[in-house]
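Subject: Interface between my chains keeps coming out wrong

I've been trying for a while to get a sensible model of this assembly. When I model each chain on its own everything looks fine, but I need the whole thing in one frame so I can look at the contacts. Pasting all components below, labels as-is. Any help appreciated, I'm running out of ideas.
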Amino acid sequence: MSFTMTINGRRVTADEGETVLAVCQRVGVAVPTLCHHEAVEPFGSCRLCMIEVTKTAWKGWKGLMTACLYPAAPDLIIETDSERVRHVRRNVLDLLLARCPESEVIQELAAAHGVSQSSFTPRDNPDLCILCGLCVRVCESAVTAAIATVNRGHERMIGTPWGGPPPDCIGCTACAEVCPTGHITFDEQDGRRRIWGRELEMVRCQTCATPFITIAERDFLLANRHLDATYFAECPSCKRQKMAAKFAEVVHATHPGFVPRQLGAVPPPAPGAIKQRRATP
Amino acid sequence: MKRLIIRPTECVHCRNCELACSYYHAGAPTPVGPHVIEVRAVQSVPVPLTCLQCDDAACVRACPVEAITRDEGTHALVVNNRCIGCKACVYACPFGAMYFWDEAHTALKCDLCGGDPTCARFCPTDALTWA
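Reply #2:
Try treating it as a single job with all components included. I did that and got this:
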């Protein structure tokens, strides 16, 4: 069932089940967000996508809501850039800047909203984590739930079971890829990948010996995704080479004595196809 | 139904397709930019390689978040914005036709440019045609 609502004075059509953020993104209204990802349920933890919501029937009452969690509804009137919205976003960025003063993503967002310096005392030994929990949600819903948020209040952090190397981690690095501030990092050396304090042995390509996937991730995919084990024998580049070889085999079989064409072998344009330059008087 | 036809016999290994692809998909026509078509020469045959748009595709099976779906119009498999960057599809593809775009943290594959492949338009010979 589709219906109409208003975003910044513009009439837009929305469907039931859509969130306000989804409608905004679909119609091209920019709403800043850090913790939103299409692959997981909305969570509303970064508080950046705050919007002002009202209806004519609400007699002037306006609520501040997170766009990622607020369901689209008929006759909603949304403001994504009102003075009140900008004010609350500045507050959110002020707090985020105190938490992660070294984060370039936060610095840029804050500068774009007119916050050059946090009015709060920056935290001691800051890192880049804004505690949005996107890594935890992605790992939980798509991979193995190897990490979680631990502790409460100001001691809350993204952690692993008992602070040690997570036994369930398969080293897919999806957490690092979705992290909005780049807090989660990993490194690879000598065919071993290190992430979350865990060291994972990698599969080496049987042709070129380049390590390309962790053994744990390969085994996880084979066990859960109905894939052929031979797909993981070679790295993507060698598989490409093999496919090209197959094409070449067919070419040599169908065209004995094949000689590849050269650019000069392209037939010259027909006479008159290219206009002669007129002689200047 | 139109298809992207690859004719290695016509290819001159100019790699225009790679540039056109990276310009279309990443807005940057550099040879090192993300492109999903690649010309590989084997036994003196230059072969422009790209996704074969398999029916029962390994990338679709490998994806944990259903980020690769079939486009109704072009019948191409397309990566949507649900991609979490686990690269399972990149390693699962038996033809190595899946790419990963590091800067955008997303998998990248041939989506036939929504029905008008840029590589075919920029191919100076008949090595790549959309017909």
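Reply #3:
Confirming on my end. DSSP finds four helices and eight strands in chain B.
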